[in-house]
User: Fold these one by one.
Assistant:
Number 1:
Amino acid sequence: MQNKTVVRSMDILNLFLTHSKLSFNEIVHFSGIPKTSVYRMVMSLEEMGLLDKDRDGKYSLGLLFLRFGHLVAARLDIREVALPIMQKLHDKVGEAVNLLVQDGNEAICIEKLDTKQHVRLYTAIGRRTPLYAGACSRVILAFQPQYEREQYLEQIELKPIASGTITDKERLRILLEESQKTGFTASHSELENYISAVAAPIFNNKGYIIAGISVSGLEVNYQKDLLPPLVEKVKGAALEISREFGYTDKCLCLG
């Protein structure tokens, strides 16, 4: 059942798809909503940053929409560019291939190709994971600017999720430093027991981390002697995507 206030608020916001600015009376007129209800909703939308009011008293969409718009556009761009490269990687390894981006203190999966094996994995499109747990989340954390990484480590509580989740901050720091040197991250039973993953960072033209790509599957397929070929394939895919965003070996990587 739809919430009436939410639906009416969306009706008001939708007016700005065809009007750049509207006065209060124009919003009442075009929406057909009673004036007292419009007043309450417009005040709330303005407080939340969804509407802005100028000196003439006219309303327009707030800057918050611009922020959301940049995030959505960037994520869609990454997904669109990465998907064919993810497909090639999937064809080579037969494992699940995942694409994650940072969202605050978490990583969110924005694309996934399922494993060819009959096994259900933790990762799904829209699934969120803490930056410290799992190869793909942690590779994003590893290549953040140092001050951002340290700020995160100081304030985060490392909670166990599966049997291999890292809950010691010093060990986590060591693993993050190793990832910066090797260019990849591996995880075993960190988000789900008996599931492993290998991930590599995706950079933009300025050397900033913008996403992580990983392959994941049953832990038995990720033992030490089996890792090197997987690592090279994942790193190769990550580099190919990065180059699509203008990254070169000369870019300053801010890890």
Number 2:
Amino acid sequence: MTTNEFILFGSTHILTLFLIFSISIGFSIYARGIYDEVKFSVFEKSLGYLLILNELLKPFYLNYFSPEDYNWTNTIPLHACHFSSYATGLFLLTRNQKFFDFAYFWGLGGGTMALFTPDIEFTFPDLDFITLFSGHGLLFFALLFIAVAIKQNITFDSYKNAIKFSLYILPVVYLINVIVGGEPGFEANLWYLMKAPAGDSLMNFFPNPPLHIIPLFPIVMLVFYILYLPYKVKNN
């Protein structure tokens, strides 16, 4: 099956974004009106397990269906969006606020950016297209459900927790990249700390990795703060 080159904000991209956002927003608003923790318990746990298992299983089917593009070295499920999916799933299973603190900021901040500027070369029905938009779309759906239907709160401490966790884990992820390495074309590149993504993104305007972290992190802090503002207004 032949696939065409992915076009940023082309018709397929826009249609996919429309489906993800309309389904997520529509369902969250509907669920908000009828929400009951007991009635939604099975749904929430199923969604939580699905978020986690989808990311853990992804390396296996990527390597199986596309061995020419993937190896275990470049499919380690520890990207920021993987962490966001794990944290979102764990929140749905445990209701621990700290999981949502990380998931909300990284999932909506980084995950939404991945939807708008995906790191893929080909459009639907390419495997990369399907896995990226299904995974990030599911994450967006779950986070919106938590924020709108469950009405989970975010505080300034949540904002600080997300920043601190990011700073703690950043050097660990970089070290994993260095240790794992990988043959040319299959290098570990978690959090894009080794090289910029293939597609167009904000990183086009920054120094080459890992020096891009210096100008990028203040922008991340600003984006996180903007995401916190609606809760600041509500809580005040």
